[in-house]
Design brief:
With about 140 residues, the chain is of the alpha+beta class. The protein has one domain. Helices cover about 35% and strands about 20% of the residues. It has helices spanning about 15-20, 70-80, 80-90, 110-115, 125-145; strands at about 1-5, 10-15, 25-30, 45-50, 55-60, 95-100. The strands form two sheets. A four-stranded mixed sheet has the order 3-4-5-6. Strands 1-2 form a two-stranded antiparallel ribbon. The longest helix is centred in the last third of the chain and has 20 residues, at about 125-145. About 20% of the residues are buried.
Length: about 140
């Protein structure tokens, strides 16, 4: 297992020996994409690059107020339009934005499951909602106590 750690404000990359040998998938989080031109929104939460398939997925995971879930979904897709164009040009991969948005009290949009199903791995919607609610409760305890 190969693990590289930088400061929290930079990035962390973990790959298994299979992935580093075969070069199948690269996962980056909390890292800016360096481009030839200035792109204001160049730091999605997670980037999954499928090296063999020639794909790249930009995942953003905000936790907005419940009434803003659908609005935030559209906002995130538009936010990374320039970055998608630049990544496709630089890396020669098909790129898409996948907004994984859960409201502060667990609200999800009608398209949430569709977006989540495109993310590799097993995901339990109820567990993700529970995590969002527990995060909100933690924040409230910190602020109110």
């Amino acid at each position: 297992m190969k693990t590289e750690h930088a400061s929290k404000s930079q990035f962390t990359t973990e790959t298994t020996s299979e992935a580093s040998q075969a070069g199948k998938v690269t996962i980056l989080w909390n890292q800016q994409v360096q481009a030839d031109r200035t792109i204001p929104n160049n730091k999605p939460d997670i980037i999954i690059r499928g090296n063999e398939k020639g794909t790249c997925m930009l995942i953003d995971v905000p936790i907005p107020r419940d009434r803003n879930v659908v609005k935030k979904e559209a906002e995130k897709i538009l936010k990374y339009k320039d970055l998608i164009i630049e990544i496709q040009r630089m890396w020669n991969v098909k790129t898409q934005v996948t907004p994984v948005i859960i409201g502060a009290t667990g609200t999800i949009s009608k398209s949430f499951r569709k977006y989540l199903s495109s993310v590799p791995g097993k995901h339990d919607t109820k567990e993700l909602q529970k995590t969002a609610v527990l995060g909100t409760a933690h924040t409230l305890r910190e602020v109110l106590m």
